[in-house]
Amino acid sequence: MRKICAEKPQKSVEMKGILLDMEGVIRDSKNAFHHAYEAALLSIGLKLKSYPAATWKLRGFAELSHQEHFLKALFAITKNGEDVSRILWKKYPMEYVKELVKNNGPTKSEMEKMEEAYMKALTHPSVLKRIPPVRAGKKGAKMLKDAGFKLGIVTNAKRDYNIAWMTDREILNMFETIITSEDAAEPKPAPDMILKGCEKIKSKPKDTYYLGDSEADIIAAKAAGCIPIGIVSDATERAKLKQLGAVEVYDSVTDFALQMKKGKF
Q1: Per-domain residue ranges for the chain?
Q2: Which residues, at least 6 apart from 263, have a Cβ–Cβ distance to it below 8 Å?
Q3: How confident is the model at residue 265 (pLDDT cuts 50, 70, 90)?
Q4: Cα–Cα dist 155/158, whole Å
Q5: SS (HEC) of 210-253
Q6: Is the backbone peptide bond immediately before 133 cis, with ω within 30 degrees of 0?
Q7: Which DSSP category does 23 fall into?
Q8: Mean pLDDT, to the nearest integer, of 19-45?
Q9: Which pick of 8, 64, 73, 205 has the fewest CB atoms within 10 Å?
């Protein structure tokens, strides 16, 4: 494990709350998401020009962390005949995507069709069963739970999708709460959802770790007053997570749990 050194907060016996993002941290949804993006675009007659690794990387930008914003971006990119991979190589990819959405965004009707097709594809039983957990994420969460930490999930993904998948994988009871974009006024990168999670697990933000793999996760955790911890999933580079305010960056939840067990953090 490669560990990034940084100034650490003071230890406290009260520090028992841990909130985690889901995608890329606990659930390996890269391929399933891509399949759902393809289905969403096909519902309005468009074909996605990209691969799972590229759409996953694009999803890592804070501005596109919410499903609605991401689908709008994919629509504009595809409508313009662009390839996501090529856009990622641009010097300022987000500025370029924003301009595409501004000039060629979907209509309300197109968005409704895309969102319906996206959720239908993602929550289909055959798809849910093929979405694997991140092994080191699931194992790490269990280690933290067994150590007595109060755990909660904070994710921009829809509640029905989360409940269905977590039930199928028999990990629903591992967490005291699941906060989704439907539970707060604003999704990540706004702090609303994380603050709601802290409230649910009865842990003060300053005494709560938040583990996430994207820009939106670290920005939201910092804004909420929590302790931001970066988890690497290829959505966002290590250096970027650190730059945004991650106190530490780990390869997995298991690596973080091992450090907690050793009392080194």
Answers
A1: 17-28+133-262, 30-128
A2: none
A3: low
A4: 8
A5: EEECCHHHHHHHHHHCCEEEEECCCCCCHHHHHHHCCCEEECCH
A6: no
A7: B
A8: 96
A9: 8
Tokens at 12, concatenated: 């406290």
Six-digit token string for 250? 């780990």
What length does the chain have? 265
CA distances from 41 to 34, 113, 121, 140, 155 (A): 11, 9, 12, 36, 23
Per-residue confidence (pLDDT) for residue 16, from 0 to 100: 76
| Strand pairing class (150-154; 177-179) | parallel
Average pLDDT over residues 168-188: 94
Q: For residue 160, what are its two tokens?
A: 């029905």
Q: Structure tokens of 213?
A: 């793999």
Residue 27 — pLDDT band, cuts 50, 70, 90? very high
Nearest to 87 by CA among 46, 57, 107, 63: 57
Structural contact between residues 182 and 159, judged by C-beta atoms closer than 8 angstroms: yes
pLDDT tens, position by position, 124-150: 999 988 999 999 999 999 999 999 999
DSSP letter (8 states) at residue 45? T
Query: Taking 60 as the threshold, does the pLDDT of residue 15 lie above it?
Result: no
Task: Residues 17-28+133-262: name the CATH superfamily.
Answer: HAD superfamily/HAD-like (3.40.50.1000)
Asked whether the bond before 125 is cis by omega within 30 degrees of 0, the reply is no
